[in-house]
């Protein structure tokens, strides 16, 4: 049985057989991928609302708070700033739950000593923001948490530095994988033998970083766009490397949104705290 859209197209073709018909998906894919400055203004508003919400959360999070209470704070903050709501289901994952990529239960107690990964974004004017931050529940990173966090932040900055016109997302992901291999060896996750004997189709670093680094962003949080063709100025991407360590019950992801320019990119979330020092200072207050 044909879905409604296909039934409608079939009916139009039967009614008006002399017309020429083309699928709109390819046309819309091109139109949606390249953002105008006006679209960026609207997206920036969604991101500013998300920033304000994150700052609010840094004052709210503490040992004993429930994940769903944090989600409720997000919803309240979004609506109070005239967003239409969240751009997608918020991921509020404390402790080992942070290793679950699309964790949706949001029902655990946040415990002293744990990290909490929060992936959320506002929808404003039908456009999406997509932020991820990982913070210590008690406001202070342990030495190991800080080491892994800074390794993830290094990957984030490296990925942003090569996300430029001309590179495809496939090639870009491979380059980030090369850097992740070096970083994971440095922090003790990979041995030289792991790297030497890796399967090219399932590289060694994938044990600790098992998702893509970037996706198109716009009207949908995972918006339409190509992975294999060169990226072009005007596109908007997330940059979101993560490190997930089963043996340590730890998951860290750091995500900002970038607008591709003629010679590079612009970080649309550059004003959102991202370093260990910034996060700890704000949570201390």
Describe this structure in words.
The chain has helices at about 5-15, 25-35, 35-60, 65-80, 145-160, 170-185, 190-195, 275-285; strands spanning about 85, 90-95, 115-120, 120-125, 125-130, 130-135, 235-240, 240-245, 250-255, 255-260, 265. The chain has about 280 residues and is of the alpha+beta class. A three-stranded antiparallel beta sheet has the order 1-4-5. The protein has a three-stranded antiparallel beta sheet with strand order 2-3-6.
SSE blueprint and pairings:
Elements: H1 4-15, H2 25-33, H3 37-60, H4 67-80, E1 85-86, E2 91-94, E3 115-120, E4 122-124, E5 127-128, E6 131-136, H5 143-162, H6 169-186, H7 192-196, E7 236-239, E8 242-245, E9 250-253, E10 256-260, E11 265-267, H8 276-284
Antiparallel strand pairs: 1-4, 2-3, 3-6, 4-5, 7-10, 8-9, 10-11
């Amino acid at each position: 049985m044909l879905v409604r859209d296909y039934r409608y197209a079939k009916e139009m073709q039967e009614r008006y057989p002399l017309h020429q018909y083309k699928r709109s998906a390819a046309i819309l894919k091109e139109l949606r991928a390249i953002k105008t400055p006006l679209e960026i203004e609207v997206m920036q508003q969604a991101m500013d609302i998300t920033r304000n919400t994150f700052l609010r959360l840094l004052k709210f999070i503490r040992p004993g708070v429930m994940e769903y209470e944090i989600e409720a704070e997000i919803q309240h903050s979004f609506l109070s700033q005239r967003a239409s709501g969240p751009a997608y289901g918020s991921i509020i994952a404390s402790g080992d739950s942070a290793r679950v990529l699309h964790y949706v239960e949001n029902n655990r107690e946040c415990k002293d000593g744990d990290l909490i990964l929060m992936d959320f974004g506002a929808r404003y004017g039908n456009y999406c923001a997509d932020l991820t931050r990982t913070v210590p529940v008690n406001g202070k990173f342990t030495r190991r948490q800080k080491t892994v966090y800074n390794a993830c932040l290094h990957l984030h900055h490296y990925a942003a530095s090569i996300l430029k016109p001309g590179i495809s997302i496939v090639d870009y992901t491979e380059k980030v994988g090369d850097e992740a291999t070096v970083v994971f060896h440095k922090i003790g996750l990979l041995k030289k033998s792991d790297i030497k004997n890796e399967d090219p189709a399932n590289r060694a670093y994938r044990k600790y970083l098992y998702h893509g680094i970037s996706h198109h962003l716009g009207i949908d949080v995972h918006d339409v766009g190509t992975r294999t063709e060169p990226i072009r100025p005007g596109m908007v991407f997330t940059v979101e490397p993560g490190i997930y360590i089963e043996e340590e019950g730890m998951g860290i992801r750091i995500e900002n949104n970038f607008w591709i320019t003629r010679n590079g990119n612009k970080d649309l979330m550059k004003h959102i705290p991202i370093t260990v020092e910034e996060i700890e200072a704000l949570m201390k207050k």
